Amino acid sequence: MGPAPGDPPAATPAMPSTPSPGTPSQILPRSFQWLYQHCPAFPISGSKVRVIVDPREFYQELLDKAGGARKRISISSLYLGTGKLEERLVSVVGQRVAAVDGLQVHWLLDHTRGSRGQHSSRSMLHPLLAQYPHSCSVSLYHTPNLRGLLRRLIPQRWNETIGLQHMKLYVFDDSLLISGANLSNDYFTNRQDRYMVFEECPALAAFYHNLIATVSRFCPQLATDDSTSMPAGTSVHPYLGDLEEYCGAMREAVQELWRAECDRTPERLRHIGNTSNPSFSSTSLDTLVFPTLQMGPFGITNDGYVTKRFLSSAEEGSRIHLASGYFNLTEEYMKCVLGQSRASYSILMAHPEANGFLGAGGFAGAIPAAYTQLAKLFFGRVKDGEQEHRISLHEYRRKGWTFHAKGLWYSRPGQTWPVLTMVGSPNFGWRSVQRDLETQVVVVTQNTALREALHKEHSRLYDCGTEVTDSTFTSPGRSVPLWVRCVMPIIKVFF
């Protein structure tokens, strides 16, 4: 059996430790061979991967893929917005269901975020459910940690701080679009994120389709009258039933899926270098994809482990470009970057004017200042450790835009173009590790065109960045209210 995503490291790697010609070791640097012990691997051709750089292109990709689907559409997102662009997306999905017999559509959204307000994600999808009850379904993940008196007392919007369904996965037949972007107007127009498309990669698409289906088995299902009920055959409930029993059932189901994919990995990897079949030649399969999972409420900590080990094991002289729209590294990640890593870092985060909470009412309006305080504290630790030669911070600022991009790009010593990227939903912060459901992919490639595209992607983002200096935090408008500084040690675990 392969390792489960919450298990300790496996005792024996899935691949030989000594690289030899015609093996996956040619693609994956020696310092990262440990990835085979902790994640399923999917060998693909780099020519099947497209890097999208613009939110309007992301939206058009969703429309095109939904409009051409033949057998399945599986969507996992935090929420679905309620504007005209979102209505058009739902309409395209409905038209395709009407046109293609047997097409199955499933949405996995977050219960709290998807229920906010009278006109919500739920009401947006009611017509689709009513018209196509046998083809369309909607699951609403409800964190098991929001229950009892807490669930009754905490108001809408603030109940989202307890935990969310945060995975951003868009599966259309055998293709996957993975991102950090949600399904709403800002993410389709002027909210910068990252997006990667894997065209006709059936095994990878099937894994994420099955992951969405597995999580959905333990989520309330939406009905056309706006009521919810657990799926038939599911005896556990996220907030009405026993907490330990519910979490154990979800964990076991996800681990079973994960182990099955790990067990299939050796056979998939044998195709690399198989000269007897030209379609599986080492020149066509030049890229490896490793999914990671983080589901803190269920004890699934794979992504956190992989991220920490990656940051710690990066080669001396290598460079890591790391981005997060909400910069709030956990203490463990900070220790990796500041003390354990031998790589150089360029970290890109949102300027307060590019923070999605800018101008929000009430307490939420102070969130940009809170992130300023977190950045200031981290910058102070960089200086105190005399690490300025190795670590630089940058703030994304683009007129009329907000910044939500996350992930990293890794370039080996002496090289400019990345050989590895991590892209998906985690922000490398406390929420990602402890509270939410997260996934991303580690993509390692020898494909020249893909490496160039990754280089252009991070260069384009950093072109909108300004390096942080001492004067950054003393410039007009950057002061942090005293009350924000006082509460940060307490509330940062909710960001």
Describe this structure in words.
It is a single chain. The chain has 495 residues and is of the alpha+beta class. It has 15 helices and 20 strands. It has a 9-stranded mixed sheet with strand order 1-12-19-18-17-13-14-15-20. Strand 13, helix 11 and strand 14 form a beta-alpha-beta unit. Helix 2 packs parallel to helix 3. The chain is globular and about 60 Å long. The relative contact order is 0.15. About 4% of the residues have low confidence.
Secondary structure class reads alpha+beta
- How would a crystallographer describe the biggest sheet? 9 strands, mixed
SS strand fraction: 15-25%
Distance between the termini: 36 Å
Cα-atom radius of gyration: 22 Å
List the helices and strands and how they pair.
Layout: H1 35-38, E1 42-44, E2 49-52, H2 55-68, E3 72-76, H3 84-99, E4 104-110, H4 111-114, H5 121-131, E5 136-141, H6 148-153, E6 169-172, E7 175-179, H7 185-189, E8 191-192, E9 195-198, H8 202-216, E10 221-222, E11 228-229, H9 243-269, E12 287-295, H10 302-313, E13 319-324, H11 331-340, E14 344-350, H12 367-384, E15 391-396, E16 402-403, E17 407-411, E18 420-424, H13 430-434, E19 437-445, H14 448-462, E20 465-467, H15 482-491
Parallel strand pairs: 3-4, 4-5, 8-16, 13-14, 14-15
Antiparallel strand pairs: 1-12, 2-9, 3-6, 6-7, 7-9, 10-11, 12-19, 13-17, 15-20, 17-18, 18-19
Helix pairs in contact: 2-3, 3-5, 8-9, 10-11
